[in-house]
Design goal:
Length: about 70
């Protein structure tokens, strides 16, 4: 089920080493990506956004390391 899949995805993100970033489609779609273990938080954010936007939709960062930043 989709909820369990999303939960596992988020759990993997939280368990990943810093520096990391989690992004999602701005449209509210289900597409999400993350990058962890980067040299800086900014590199993680950029990498995750690039991966997400390869699907052809604009994306936004929602977490950097363990801080929720969506809506900032």
């Amino acid at each position: 089920d989709a909820k369990e899949t999303a939960r596992g995805f988020i759990e993997n993100y939280v368990a990943g080493p810093t520096d990391k970033a989690l992004v999602r489609q701005k449209s509210g779609g289900r597409a999400m990506n993350y990058v962890y273990g980067s040299s800086t938080a900014e590199n993680a954010r950029k990498g995750a956004l690039e991966q997400c936007e390869k699907r052809g939709q604009p994306c936004e960062a929602v977490m950097v390391n363990d801080a929720w930043i969506a809506g900032e």
